[in-house]
Amino acid sequence: MSKNYNLSISPANHLANANVSYRNGNPVVRFEIGESNRVLLPSSLRLVGSYHVYKDAARGVPVEATELETPSNLGVYAAIDSLSYRTQRSKSEIETISGYNRFMSTYLPVTSSLQDGIGHLGESALVAPNPQFNKETVVNNASVTTGNSFCIPLISGFTSSNNPYPLFQQGVEVTLQLSPDSQVMFSTGTDSSAFVNGFYEFKDLKLICEVVDTGESPDPSAPLTYEYNSITTFYNTINSTNAQISLNLGQSRVLGVFGSFVPTSFINNLTQNGLATLYPRKSATAAAAIEQIVFTRGGERFPLIYNLDTLQKTTPTDESADPQVVRNFMNAIVEFSKLNRTNASPVNTFVETDGTYGYKETIQGGSAGAGIGCAFDVISGQGVDFSRVPFGIQMELDLDLDFPNALYLYVHAKNTLVMSGDSIQVLH
Amino acid sequence: MPVSSFWSSDNKIPIGQSSIAIPSDNNLNQKAGQKVTFRIPAGTEFINPKETYLRCDVKIDITAGAKTNLQLDSDIGAQVLIRDIFVKTQQGVILEEIQGYNTLVAAMYDYDTNDNYRNKRGLTEGATVNNPLVGNDGGCPVLQKNDCLNNPYFKRETATSTTSTATAFKTMKVLLPLHTGIFQNDKVFPTMLTDGLIVELVLEENRRVFRQLDTVSKYRFAANNPVFLNITGADAAAAITVGDNVSHIFIDPSRNSMNSLENFPFRVGESFKLVDTQTLSIDNAGAIAVEDIGSASGVAGGSFIITGLEETVGTGANTKVKVSFASGSLSGSNVDSDFVMFSTACEHTTALVANYELSNLELIVQKLDMPVDYKSSLLNSMKSGGTMVYDFLSYTNYRFSTLKSESVINLRLPLQNSRGKAIWCIPTDAETRTLPANTGAVSTYFQCQESDGGVVDSATATFSDRVGLEGCADFCQNYQWLYDNKLQPNRKVEVEKTCDKVSISQQHLVELEKALAMGGLECRSFRKFNRNFIIGRALALGDGSYDTRSKDFSLQLEYTGATTQKVNKLWNCFCCHIRGLQISGDRIQVVI
C-alpha cells in the first residue's frame, strides 16, 4: 500500500542566519532531495520563504518617494536568474533554464489571466496586476520581520511532467541562481538615486515536496526512462535592419521556439525594467518596428511557408501589434485555439504608445503578447528534428540606429532521461 | 498559470506540419457584396482544419457625410464581414453551407466569451475590448466600444491641437478562424480524397457592418459621452442659455476620462448636439419621451460642426479639451453640466456613406505530412472498396419571417437533419434600415436600460447597433416547441420578464444553455441574455442525436402582452447537427 510523505528541505548551502541575497554574496541556493526507496512527485515541488525589498544597505524600507519598484507581473519569479535540476550523485543535468525570470516574463502573461493575477498568483507568487498595488503591498512593506511570504511552484519541464521520479535511482539536486538586484529593481521614473544600494533578500527558504512510498521494493538496476518537455535558452543581440539569427539547437524533438526582446541597455539597469517584454526599439522611447519575419530550418522557410509581412511594413507608424506575429508567438507557447487564459490584449500589446516617461507609464512590464515565435508541432507532440540542421530567423526591422536589442529565445523540446543503475543519460 | 498541454509529454505518431498561404482566386481587393473564393489544392493531401484561418487587411473609409470614428463590430470583429459561407469539393459537391454566418458567429461569441476570449479576438479578429485608460464613470456596463487609444481601425490622436478634417482610418490585419463544421473540427481533413476544397465567402453589405463608438452616441449609454463644462475655460462648471453666442465649449476633464485629446472620441468635421442626461426619458418600448437638446440655430439640422480640437488649461488650472465650431447662437435648451455631447454624424443632413475594402486575402492552411505508411494504408483501403466516413458538427440555417403585427406565431421548420443536436432560433431585426441608422443605432430596436433601485436610468439606455446580428426579445411572452407530435417542454416556457426587459426569466436560460452546449458551445457568459435573445432547444443530450426528418417541427410563440412587437423579424433558426462525408473511390456523399 502506498503512502505519501511531505518533505521540507532546507538549503544545503544556507547561512546561519537563513538570509539569502545576491548583494551579500550568496546568490546560489541549492536543495538536495536525497536518495530513498520512494518516488518524488515533481509537480509538488514548491519554493517557500519570505521576500524582502530594501532601499539601502541598512535594510531601510522603501517609501513612495523612493521611486523603487519591481516587476509586478512576475512577483518572486523576477528574482530567479536560473533554475537547474541535476541528479544528486552523478551531477547529470536533467534540465537547466537560464534566464529563468526572463522566461517567466515571456511565458506567464501569455498563459495566465487577469483573474489569476488578482487571485492565486497574487497570494502565492506575489504577482500584482497593478504596479502601484505591487509597490504598496510588496515593495514598500514595512513589516520587516515577516516580509512577504510566498510559495511558488518551480515551473519547468521536469516539475510539470506528471511522471513520478524514482529517488531510488538517484536523488535530485535543485539549484537556484539569484538575479542581480539591478535586474530585479528599477525606478518608477528616471531617478534611482534613492535606492542605488537597495537589494532584495530571501529569508527562511525551503523546498517542500511530496514523495510516495509505493510499498514495493524497487530494483535500482532496472532500466527506467523518464520523458519530459524542457526549455533551453539562447541569447542573441540584434543591431541592424536585417537581423539574421542562426542557431544549432542540438535537439531532435523541438516542439516550438519563442522569444522576447528587450534593449540591452535596459538589462541590469536601475532605471529600466530589464525584464520587460518589449518589441524591438531603436531608442529608449522609439520602436524599431518589425517589418518581416521568416523562420527557417536548414535555410528553408519552415514551418510558415510564406513571408510574414507585418502591418508596419506598409505603415511604419502603425502602433497596433501585428496579429500574425502575436498569434504565432502565443501559438508557440500554447496552441492558440486552445488558449483560454491570457493577459495579452490589444490594450497591453502594441508596438509603441509610450507615455511621457516611456513604456513604464503605459505598460510597466512590457507588452503581454510581445514576442516572436512559431510552433513546430501542435498535433503529435513529437516535434521536429533540429539536431543536424540549424534553426534560423530572418527579420527585417526598422532598427537603423545604434541601439542593440537582446532577443531571448526559448526552445521548447521533448527529452528522455534514461536511468539504469549508476548510468544516467539525457536524450535530447 | 502553467498550462498542462505545454509540458505534457505524450507518445503519438510524428506528423510534419507546415503552414501555407493560399491567395484568393482573383487575388484582387474585395468590397461589400462580392464573393471571395479560395481553392485548397488536393496536393496538400491532409490539413489541420482548426489551424486554418482567413487572413486579410481591412480598411474603412467615409466617402460622404460628417466625419466620425467608425469600427467594425466590437464582439465579432471582422467576422461581421462574412454573410454566407460555402465549403465545396472541386467537383462542386457542397459539403457545408451556412447562410447568415455572421449571425451564427455573433451567437457563438456572445455566449462563449469571457475576458480572455475577448482579448484573443481583439488581438487577432478585429474585435475591440474595453480600454480602462478611457474608462467611463457614467454608471454603465463595461463598454467594448470605448477605445480611441488602441483602436485597430483608426489612429490615436497624437496632436494636442488639430483642425484637420481628414479621417484617421488605418489598415487593420485580421486573422479569422472559420466557424464551420469542417474548419472547427479537431480531426485531420483528407483533402487528397476530396480533390481539394473550395471555400467561398459572400461579403456583407456596408450598411450592416459599421459601428460608432459608444462614447459618442445618444442611443447607447449616453452617460459615457463627453460632459459639457463651460465656455470660459475655467475649472468650474457654468451653464449657457439659449441665445448665447457660442464658438466653442470646454469638456469636463473629471468625467469619463475626457482629460486629453487622445482620449476624446470626436473628430474634427463631426457634427454634434448636446443632450441632458438627467431629463432624457426613454420608455421601455424605445420611444424617446423627453430629450432636452442644445443645438445650433440657423444651421440646417441644428448640429454644431467641429472645426478644431485643442487640449488646453483654458482660464483654469486643469487640462481640458476645447471643442471649436462655427460661431452661432444656442437654441433648444439651456445647457449645463448635465449635458453631454452626442454625435449626429448618423443623423446629419448629408447622409453618412461608408464602405470597407479587403485586400491581401489569403487562406492560411496548416498542411500535414502524414507518415507514408498511413497514407498507403488509407489509399489501399480506398482502392479495395473501402469507405471513409468523416463526421463533423455543422449548422444549417432555416429562415422564417414574421411581422410585428402578429401576436401568436407558429414557426414551422422543415428540418431535414438526420442527426440533429440542437436548434438555436435567433429573431433578428428585419426592418429596412439605412447605413447611418444601423451604424449610429438611430431609433433601432430598443434593447434595455439599467435601473437604479427601480428607477429606470435613461442615460444608460441601449438601442441595438447590430441589426441583423442579434436576437430581439421584443415583448415575447412565452414559447413552446411541437415535435414528435408532442408539445415540448410540456409547459410553456415563460420569457415575459426577459422580453419585457424588466428581469430574468430563468427557465428559458436553462433551456438555452442546454441547446448551446449541445451545439458545441461552451457557455461562458450570459451577459447578453436579453441583448442577443435566442430561443434554444437541445434535441438530444450527451452524445446522442435526434432524427428531425419527416417530423412536423414547429415553434409556437405568443406576443400577447400589454406591449406589441416593435420590429419585423427574420428568424435565423440554426439546426446544429452532425454531418457526415462518405468518401469511397471517386464518389463523395454528404449525409445530412
CATH topology of the largest domain in chain A: Adenovirus Type 2 Hexon, domain 4
Q: State the distance separating the first and last CA atoms of chain B.
A: 42 Å
CATH class of the largest domain in chain B: Mainly Beta
Q: Determine the fraction of residues in helical runs of chain B and give it as a percent range.
A: 10-25%
Task: Give unreliable regions of chain B as ranges.
Answer: none
Q: Kindly report how far apart the N and C termini of chain A lie.
A: 35 Å
Provide a descriptive summary of the structure in words.
The complex is a heterodimer of chains A (428) and B (592). Chain A has 428 residues and is mostly beta strands. Chain A folds into two domains: 3-220, Distorted Sandwich (Adenovirus Type 2 Hexon, domain 4), CATH 2.70.9.10; 225-416, Jelly Rolls, CATH 2.60.120.730. In chain A, 14% of the residues lie in helices and 36% in strands. Chain A is built from nine helices and 22 strands. Chain A has helices at 100-111, 114-118, 120-125, 131-139, 157-160, 181-184, 311-314, 323-333, 359-362, and strands at 3-9, 19-20, 28-33, 39-54, 68-69, 80-87, 93-98, 148-153, 165-166, 172-178, 186-187, 199-213, 224-238, 242-247, 254-263, 290-297, 300-301, 308-309, 372-375, 391-397, 405-420, 423-427. In chain A, strands 1, 2, 4, 8, 9 and 12 form a six-stranded antiparallel beta sheet that branches. In chain A, strands 13, 15, 19, 21 and 22 form a five-stranded antiparallel beta sheet that branches. In chain A, a hairpin with a 2-residue loop joins strand 21 and strand 22 (423-427). The longest helix of chain A has 12 residues, at 100-111. The two termini of chain A are 35 Å apart. The mean pLDDT of chain A is 90. Chain B is mostly beta strands. Chain B has two domains: 15-213 and 354-591, Adenovirus Type 2 Hexon, domain 4, CATH 2.70.9.10; 214-348, no CATH class. Helix content of chain B is 10%, strand content 38%. In chain B, strands 8, 12, 13, 14, 17, 18, 19 and 20 form an eight-stranded antiparallel beta sheet that branches. In chain B, strands 1, 2, 4, 9 and 21 form a five-stranded antiparallel beta sheet that branches. The mean pLDDT of chain B is 92. Classes of the chains: A mainly beta (428), B mainly beta (592). Chains A and B meet through helix 2, strand 13 and helix 8 of A and helix 1, strand 1, strand 4, helix 3 and strand 9 of B.
